[in-house]
Each structure stands twice: as structure tokens, then as C-alpha cells.
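Board notes (copied after class):
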Amino acid sequence: MKTLVATVALSTFLVSLLFAQERDRRSDPKKEAQPKIEKANWDRIKERIEGAVERGEMTREQADQKYKELKKSLEAKSQGNRNQPKRTRPGSSPQMPRQRRPDALGQLVGKLVAEKKINREDARRIIETASASRPPMQNRPNTHGQISGELRDILDQARNELAELQEAREEMHREHEEWERHRDEHAE
């Protein structure tokens, strides 16, 4: 009974861990907004340069030269980013997404086995359950809704099993109290 509860709780924890990994793997909205930010910065720089020309702090030739320098530096920056392999770009993971899930699950389950919190049989069942609960990554789109649905189903199942265990515990407690009353009556 205890191992069943531990297995269900651990499975729930592992699924939530996998959900967090999937969320972390998604693209960062800040990175997607970067071209807009660069455009806004360019507009701001252009305003400052044109303002300096109007105030007489800079000549038109100096402003044109400044524009050329800025354009070259922006092109070099974007070209450098394109030439970099994807795995070496900042924010990219060296692992393929398919490799993350089994490695993380195996490491976590291995650590729990080493700490003797679960036995090898439970670890095998957890890994099999996690593998069977989801089709291969290349055959399914990885959407938030599907992961949430799977997590919700697992949590509902765990809640139902927990409720059954609590009912069984209460029943055993009532039977034990009744047995103690009978024992006390016979002792008198």
C-alpha cells in the first residue's frame, strides 16, 4: 500500500518535472522581440543624431559617417549570430530535446534508488509508465494543452487512489477501535 502511494506520488512529481522541462525548452518571448527592440533602438539613435545635426553639434557628413558605422556594426552582429552553430548560441541547449526527458528521468530515478527512497522495481515501473504515457516525440506535436491534459489525468488518478487509500485506512481504524472495545469488554 505504501509503495503504491509512493509510486503514484513520485510519478506525479516526475511528470511535473517533465512539464517544467518542456516549458523551459520553448522559445523565449524576449528573444523573439529582439528585432523590434533593435528597430526601436535604431529609431532612437537616428533621432539623437538628427537632433545633433539640427543643433549644430554635428555636421551632415559626420552624421552620415556615424550611420555607416552603426549599420556596419549591426550587420556584423547579426552576421555573427547567423554564422554561429545553433548549439553554441546563447540560450541554446547542447542537448537535443529528445535527449532531455530520458536523461533527466533516469538521473532522478537513479538518485532516488541510490538514496533508497524507492526500490529498483518501482524505478523500473516509473520509467516504463512515463515512457508508455507519451508517444514518441517525433510522432506528436508538443503542445501545452496536451501536456496539461496528461498531467491532469495523472493527478486525477492519483487523487482517486489516494481517496481509496484514505477510506481503507479509516475503515481499518474503525475496525481496530471496535476490536479494542471487544477486547476491553472481555477483559472486564
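Comment from the instructor: Residues 163 and 169 are 10 Å apart (CA to CA). The longest helix spans residues 144-187.
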